Amino acid sequence: MSVVGHTPPPFFKRGPAPLARLTFFAALSIVLLVADLRFHTLEWARLVLATIAWPVQRVAQMPVEGAAGAGQYFASLIQLQQENAALRSRSLATANQLLRQEHLEQENRRLRALLDMKERQPAEGRVAEILYAARDPFSRRVLIDKGLQAGIAAGQAVIDDLGVIGQVTRVFPLMAEVTLLTDKDQAIPVRVQRNGLRAVAAGAGAGSIELRFLAANAEIQVGDILVTSGLDGLYLPGLPVARVAHIDRDNSFAFARIRCEPIAGVERHGHVLVLGSRIVPPRPEEASTTADVPGKGRRVKKAVR
């Protein structure tokens, strides 16, 4: 077997010595560094490498940014849940105050309206609060917190800022009983505001009022306003009482069946105004006569002498 022309396989070929390669690459690096420092010859290569490496950098940063975003999301979610819980507890804590404030505002509006009604009516009046309703389920009566100590007397009219509520029927030392207009035993003389037609309004129960003993052909229509006529000497004339809601004219009956709805908050409001005696100003003739009495007495006495 001949060995002439035998060469070792490429795997065992040896190139330049390691020291020679180290020297070569070190010298090349120094040359490139000096050239780039003095002449900026490798700027384009740096730009190319940065452009190529940018997608790789973004892909490598995505897991880190995703983990940070997820952490911030869950942290903000927990913070929002805590804030919602705190706001919910705070709203529950202040709900009672808000409801009470709204109730007080409504009462203040009604009280201001009552005081305005008191100044507009030529009679003394006392503001009272409704304590509770009577225990009898078949009567429409309420108890107010004013009685004999406040000058309340039986028979006085009770109104609110809209119209007539009822009448004081029983008085106690510290409270009084008011019979509402809707009670079946309560009646009040009224007149139709549109044409002055007089009638008697009586309670019909169930929050309604009816006009009794009014002819079937009477000039009255749905929507008419009924006001007090003042003929009984108890209610001031012109106080709103009710509004006609339904009229049933049957020729087989002598009287019409007329159902009305109270204008005032008969079974709603919590404050009422109890009217006292009317304030009647002295007539000019009486005032002048009273002022001239002393002078007349002296003139008469002088004449007698």
- Span from first to last CA? 194 Å
| Assembly state | single chain
Structural class: alpha+beta
CATH topology call of the largest domain: Thrombin, subunit H
Query: Treating each run of at least 4 consecutive H or I residues as one helix, how many helices?
Result: 3
Average pLDDT rating: 78
Please indicate the percent range of residues in DSSP E strands (runs of 2 or more): 25-35%
The number of distinct structural domains comes to 2
Note the main sheet: 6 strands, antiparallel, barrel
CATH architecture of the largest domain: Beta Barrel
What is the H/E order? HHEEEEEEEEEEEEH
* Full CATH superfamily name of the largest domain: Rod shape-determining protein MreC, domain 2
Topology:
Blueprint (H helix, E strand, L loop, with lengths): L17 H22 L3 H78 L2 E11 L7 E4 L12 E3 L4 E8 L4 E5 L6 E6 L5 E8 L2 E5 L12 E4 L11 E9 L8 E6 L8 E8 L5 H21 L1
Antiparallel strand pairs: 1-2, 1-12, 2-5, 3-4, 3-12, 4-5, 6-7, 6-9, 7-8, 8-11, 9-10, 10-11
GO biological process, one term: regulation of cell shape
InterPro entries: Cell/Rod_1, Cell/Rod_MreC_2, MreC, MreC_beta-barrel_core
Keywords: Cell shape, Membrane, Transmembrane, Transmembrane helix
Notes on the structure:
By secondary structure, the chain is α+β, with helices and mostly antiparallel strands. It has 3 helices and 12 strands, in the order ααββββββββββββα. The strands form 2 sheets. A 6-stranded antiparallel barrel has the order 1-2-5-4-3-12. One of its GO terms (cellular component) is plasma membrane.
